[in-house]
Structures are given as C-alpha cells and as structure tokens.
Prior knowledge:
Blueprint: E1 7-8, E2 12-13, E3 39-43, E4 46-50, H1 57-70, E5 79-90, E6 93-94, E7 101-117, E8 120-121, E9 128-145, E10 148-149, E11 156-164
Parallel strand pairs: 1-7, 2-5, 3-5, 5-7, 6-8, 7-9, 8-10, 9-11
Antiparallel strand pairs: 3-4
Amino acid sequence: KESGGAIFTDLASIPTTDTPESSTPSSSSPASTPEVVASAKINRFFASTAEPAAPSLTEAESDQTDQTETSDTNSDIDVSIENILNVAINQNTSAKKGGAIYGKKAKLSRINNLELSGNSSQDVGGGLCLTESVEFDAIGSLLSHYNSAAKEGGVIHSKTVTLSNLK
C-alpha cells in the first residue's frame, strides 16, 4: 500500500452498536455484526473481532445517549474505533503516509488497552497519519513501541491530537 498499511479511508470504521452503517475489512465472507465488540486486532489489512457477553441495560442506555449527543460532532470522522476492550494495531507498513491508518479525522474512544507497535511509513505517520485530527478519549492503557517514519511522526502525524478522559 502507498498510504494506510492497514486502513486507508474516507469512511471506514470497526462496527459497534454506535456505528451500524460501518464496514470492516475482511478476507472471509461477511458475518453478522456483533452488538458490542470486545476486542479487535488490525494487522496487515485484516480486522478481527470477538464478541463479549451482552451489556447491561444501563450500559446500553448510556451508549445510546452518548451516540445521540455526539452524532453531529462525529459526522465528519472517517476512522472510528469505539467501545472495544483491546485493540492491537501492529506490524503494518506503507510506502507513503500512515503505516497503519491514513485518513482525515479519527476518534479512538472507550478502549481499555490500545497497542500501536511495529508500524512504519516511508514518509510521515509511522502508526497513524490523519490530515486533520485524531482524538483519544477514555483510553485505559496505551502501549506504543517500535514505530517509525522516515520524516515525521513515528507514531502519530496529525495537525491536532486531543487526549481526554484518560484513565
């Protein structure tokens, strides 16, 4: 890939109950979308997910309220990874920008463990390259190592990076 070794997007996301119209790259036949995604692994063009036990009514109601309140502000986000226990974005490369993910705006939120490791780019953004912004919200743990870029942003290259509600 020239840009975005794992995800190159205008409108892509890993499905959760918050994003029913999203799509996930897959090498196998399409399967039904789980209601809540427990873990995801993005590695060399593929994303896989595992389904947890059903959420309690309180969590489901809370998620629905959150979606209603933020749907207008998130309408221009083209990479959205939300409400997942564990995410590993590892060992992706690109000849240009964004070793793992290349897009305009990204939001990664409500993730217990996020790992960005071993990603590389021959230009900018070894792990993530977003032309406008990336937001990390409610991330429990972030592990990042062995990412590289030839010019700028070994892990992240973006005009704006926002960190909020860190655990």
